[in-house]
């Protein structure tokens, strides 16, 4: 049995290599710890104010803190005074969703199918309501429809504003998913078998773009319920939505009532945000679009 004797130079080189590995390992740990620290600080910066606001809505006296006791009195007061705003916000969000589905799904499909310059121009024009401030869009609607008193003072006027604001999210989500699917080949195969356009649209297009529809629907509901700037300009005393009521409570009532209103708003919007994360969808549909090229690259590398 032979043994290998290391020379002093080899032993020194091995020690230096081990030190480099140890230093690299320590550096990676330090970087990871630093990333976690920054992430936790950012989370605390975002979450702590929300927690403090919720606690303020559940305490008897905000300035005395939790030591003054916990109560549901402010939530009951908010619900008594503003439950009409809650139901109105839900009705407006539902109406907005229905209209954006009827318009946005066919529009997104058409834009994905079309490769002309005109379709690209239309797609860019659809993004304008997002690029413009909500107050500017509201002012444009007031200039256009302000003379129609019955329409101007109805909740339908707010629905129109919300459709203008949220429609691009539905169109882009559906178009992104439709563009990533080989719908043209599937439709041509179905057409060769005698399927009509309506049959192809309902049995091929809609099932394939369902992730985009779900993503767009959740985005539309969340944005409609939480939209303030545009709604504040369009609302009347009889069409006060949840965000407008929240601003009123903070401006005219004690902070406990405003914080209790925040809790109510939080309860309405959090299920939608959780659903978006749970379903793994985003408002543009780009997340699912980004996954497919990676699968193709894996297939090509395997072959």
UniProtKB/TrEMBL annotation:
Query: Cell membrane among the record's keywords?
Result: yes
Q: Any stretches that span the bilayer, and where are they?
A: 36-63, 92-112, 124-148, 154-175, 213-234, 260-281
Q: Which GO terms describe its biological process?
A: transmembrane transport
Task: Please name the CDD domains in this protein's record.
Answer: TM_PBP2 (cd06261)
Does the keyword field hold Transmembrane helix?
yes
By its UniProt entry, which InterPro entries does this protein fall under? MetI-like, MetI-like_sf
Question: By what name is this protein known?
Answer: ABC transporter permease subunit
Organism of origin is Trinickia violacea
Question: According to the entry, what is the taxonomic lineage of the organism?
Answer: Bacteria, Pseudomonadati, Pseudomonadota, Betaproteobacteria, Burkholderiales
